[in-house]
Amino acid sequence: MQLRQKITATIGILGVAALAVFGAIVYPSVRAIDDLGNGISQEKLHIEESYLRRQLIRKSLEALGDARKKIGPLAAMAVREGRELDFVNALEAVETGTGVSQDINLVTANQKDLSKWEREIPLLLKVSGPFPSILKYLSNVERLPYSIVVQSMQLTESNQKIDNPLGAVDLNIQAVVYWQSKNAPAFLNSAPAAR
C-alpha cells in the first residue's frame, strides 16, 4: 500500500509541478501571444487609416491643383482692381466701333462681396441705335475678354429719329461683372490680365 501512496503522491507532486509550470510559463506565454496579436491588429488598422488618409490628401491636392489651373483663366476675365477704366474703355471702343450710343452704369452701391478678394458688381447698359448695329454691338461685347453675365435684356422701339430705314431701337441690359482685388491669391493673379 505504501507503493500506492508513493505513486499517488508522486502523481500529485507531478500534477502540481505541471500546473505550476503551466501557470508560470505556458499561460503568460499564451497571454503575451494574444496581446501581441491584438497589438498587431491595432497597428494594422492604424497603418490602413494612415494610408487612406494619405490617399485622400493626395487626391485633394491633385484636385486643388486642377482647380487652380481652371480658376486662373476664369480669374483673367474679371475686372482687376486699379484697371477698372480698361473695362469701361473696352465698352466705349465697342460703342465707337458699332455706331451706337450707350450709357454705362456700374452700380457699385449694390455690389455683392463673394470673397475677401472678389465682388459681383451690377452693370446697367442702355444702348440706342439701328437694330443691325445693336446686334453687332452685342456680338462685340460677347467677344470682350471680360466675364459679363447678362441677367436680362429689354429691346424697345426708340423715340429717337435717325437716318436709317430700319429705325432705331433701345436696348436695356442688366448684367453683372466680376471684380478682383490686388490681394487675390497668387494662383489667381498669375493669370494674364484682361486687356
What are its keywords?
about 200 residues, alpha+beta, Alpha-Beta Plaits, 2 domains, 6-stranded mixed β-sheet, 4 helices, 6 strands, rod-shaped, disordered C terminus
Give a verbal description of the structure.
There is one protein chain. The termini are far apart. This protein is 54% helix and 25% strand. The protein is built from four helices and six strands, in the order H-E-H-E-E-E-H-E-E-H. It has helices spanning 2-75, 84-98, 131-142, 186-189; strands at 79-80, 101-106, 112-115, 118-130, 148-157, 168-180. By secondary structure, the chain is α+β, with helices and mostly antiparallel strands.
List strands and helices in order, with pairings:
Layout lengths: L1 H74 L3 E2 L3 H15 L2 E6 L5 E4 L2 E13 H12 L5 E10 L10 E13 L5 H4 L6
Parallel strand pairs: 1-6
Antiparallel strand pairs: 2-4, 3-4, 4-6, 5-6
